[in-house]
């Protein structure tokens, strides 16, 4: 218990402060938790989507630094949205309760946030997604 509390008191990754995040999540409680946690970390919400068509439109048009994608959005998998983000060169994190084994091979490079999650796990996943983009930009 003390270790978990200590992790929650650690300052957020500095690389996350001010980052704009697109949240694609169909469960309202999870979406609210993500909004609150992202605000605590210092991120800005660039957009929210809970339906596939709205999510695809926002992923294709909004300006943001990183996205969080629920793998299963009202029974529809978000892999086409992830592919659209790849085409735009935007990093993303998959959020799922099923684990990374269900991801297609071409998308397994993306960090996976296992539901339920803690703040430090969200920070780590977002940091990994952004670091992967920074690594590609350096090449």
Topology, element by element:
Elements: H1 2-9, E1 20-24, H2 28-41, E2 44-49, H3 52-61, E3 66-70, E4 72-73, E5 76-77, H4 79-88, E6 92-96, E7 112-114, H5 119-138
Parallel strand pairs: 1-2, 1-3, 3-6, 6-7
Antiparallel strand pairs: 4-5
Task: Please explain how this structure is put together.
With 139 residues, the protein is α/β, with parallel strands linked by helices. It has one domain (15-138): 3-Layer(aba) Sandwich (Rossmann fold), CATH 3.40.50.2300. The chain contains 5 helices and 7 strands, in the order αβαβαβββαββα. A 5-stranded parallel beta sheet has the order 2-1-3-6-7, with helices on both faces. A two-stranded antiparallel sheet has the order 4-5. Strand 1 (20-24), helix 2 and strand 2 form a beta-alpha-beta unit. It is globular, with a radius of gyration of 14 Å.
Give short descriptive properties of this protein.
139 residues, Rossmann fold, five-stranded parallel beta sheet, 5 helices, 7 strands, 20% strand
Sum this structure up briefly.
This protein has 139 residues and is α/β, with parallel strands linked by helices. The chain is built from five helices and seven strands; from the N terminus they run αβαβαβββαββα.
């Amino acid at each position: 218990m003390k270790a978990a509390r200590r992790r929650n008191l650690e300052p957020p990754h500095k690389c996350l402060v001010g980052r704009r995040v697109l949240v694609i999540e169909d469960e309202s409680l999870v979406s609210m938790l993500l909004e609150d946690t992202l605000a605590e970390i210092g991120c800005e919400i660039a957009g929210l989507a809970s339906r596939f068509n709205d999510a695809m439109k926002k992923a294709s048009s909004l300006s943001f630094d990183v996205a969080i994608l629920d793998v299963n959005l009202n029974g529809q998998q978000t892999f086409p949205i992830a592919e659209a983000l790849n085409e735009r060169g935007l990093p993303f994190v998959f959020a799922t309760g099923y684990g990374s084994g269900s991801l297609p091979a071409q998308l397994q490079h993306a960090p996976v946030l296992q539901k339920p999650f803690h703040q430090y796990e969200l920070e780590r996943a977002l940091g990994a997604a952004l670091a992967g983009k920074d690594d590609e930009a350096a090449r």
